[in-house]
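Homework-ish question, so no full write-ups if that breaks the rules, but can someone show me the predicted structure for this set?
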Amino acid sequence: MTTITTPDLVVLDLPADLDRAEVTALLADRLVSAGRVTDRDQFLAAVTAREEQMPTGLEGGIGIPHARSAAVTEASVAFGRSASGVDFGADDGPADLIFLIAAPDGAGDAHMTILAGLARRLVRAEFKDGLRQADDPATVAALINEVQG
Amino acid sequence: MRLIAVTACPTGIAHTYMAAEALEQAAKAAGHEIVVETQGSAGSTPFTDEQLASADAVILAADVAVRGRERFEHLPTVEGGVKQAINHAPEMIGEAQAAAEAHAATPAAERPVGPPAGSSSAKEAGFGSLLRQWLMTGVSYMIPFVAAGGLLIAIAFLIGGPEIATKVNGGVFDGQTYQAIDDLTKLWGDVGIAGVLFKIGDTAFTMLVPILAGYIAYGMADRPGLVPGIVGGLIATSIDAGFLGGIVAGLLAGGVVLAINRVPVHKNVRGIMPVVVVPLVATTIVGLLMIAVVGPPVADVMDAVTDWLKGLGGSNAILLGALLGAMMAFDMGGPINKVAYTFGVASIAANPDIMAAVIVAGMTPPLGIALATVVRKRLFTEDEREAGKANWLLGASFITEGAIPFAAADPLRVIPSLIAGSAVGGALSMGFGASSPAPHGGLWIVPLIGDPVLWVVAIAAGTAVTCACLVAVKSLGRRPVVAETTPGAPATGVVPSTVNA
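A: Not a homework solution, just the prediction itself:
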């Protein structure tokens, strides 16, 4: 089984003053380049639709734009870190850790269980701290992939 | 404290699990046990009956409709969105603890059901609708027993003739005396396949009241209610208390279990509570109540009514027919019905008119219901409509039990309707002077009936009256059943928050 993320899908220094849609698009481009998303526009439309339903920002500086889409070939996570922060609609301000989660259509995929495990770890302080302190994409990717055991 | 929680979000890949994790951490920090059902795309493991029964409160953290929400009707509920659980899990746990404590301090009857007041989705389920849900649970499990048992008996009549029942159980049929066959291995040889089928159906029927009582208690108190309910129902049968006695047993059992569950117990004992302690204690209490408190008055009533009927022997025949008819329909297999039926059987030699009237009155309840499910489908649930079809054959075969599920589900409306039709049918049969030398068999004994045409007219008239009354009272003051199949569950969309982020 391939990992849900790779160093290629990690962006540690997102450019400042990008908005929610731009950050999401930037991360989506990484997923497209990696061949994990086949149709960029279709996938982004699904993410936007989800975001409009209810913003995905969470207290503690986290944004998790996500969608299930037929344009996704395998469950994937693209990660971005933003020093200036990006507003994802959380009550306590912008997010500095952004996870773009892409899930293929149809449930039951073993990857869905991995994504569920990742989601659970997002609420643990030590996981967030590790992501904030990591120096290179490989470390971040390894941290995120740890959930796969 | 034992908590259960459901988390659910629109896509089911992130917030569902984050909320679950946050609630688990917060519960652990506060020293509570919690089990979370994540209704997300990685699949969810539904709560076990034991988890549902032993929980003190439920937290619903969802931005979409919670699946299987009716499972939590007995629990104090805290509702909010998934983000609220992620960001403010400790507060939600605190709310749940407070709700559970308030719940435990409130007597059962005054307890509000569903989310706390102030929530716009709060369901105002009064005791009446709760009671109806409990009865419906019992009835829905009983219906297959009625259908299987009733149809087997009817088929046995078709194959072996109406005397098959007397051949198996013993008694007098059309002047012939039969010995009961107690040794089941001899059934096939002595009375053939029809006798065997009759015995199977008859055996299924012995479970009607226990299943009704058991699943009423199950509806109230989940699995721990099953044992006291079923045992209470068996006792109801033994003391001739019929299905009304079964309803009493079921409600008693559910109530006792709910009461026991509110007694605080040490954590170490909790594990054996639902498996050993609750069934043992509840069954003892329910059994004692049924035998010592319910039993004697039932027996007294049967004796008193029997004596009274004997005294009425020489009075107006039409009135007697109406009275016996009403009694047949009053509790269908309960003490009053039994007295009327026994009176009819005992009178066969001296006055076979009485038997004919009693049979009419026992046939019109299922027939009238069958007719009503055809003329006013919307007043009945899907299950009831299916059961209604079987009732044609059951009614025609004088198997009154077919009407029990309908009466048990809605006794106050259905029983008076059945009584009206049976009284009319019984009175007409007596008035026409129809007579029956056989104690059962329904339409299959028409050749034996004295004045068969008018006897069938009496059946038809009673059936029509039952149907008309049913349609009238069931249409009255209540929306059609079809519209209230999922009480309380919000249809779709966002569940309003009560705890407030």
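Now go work out the reasoning yourself. Hint: The radius of gyration of chain A is 14 Å.
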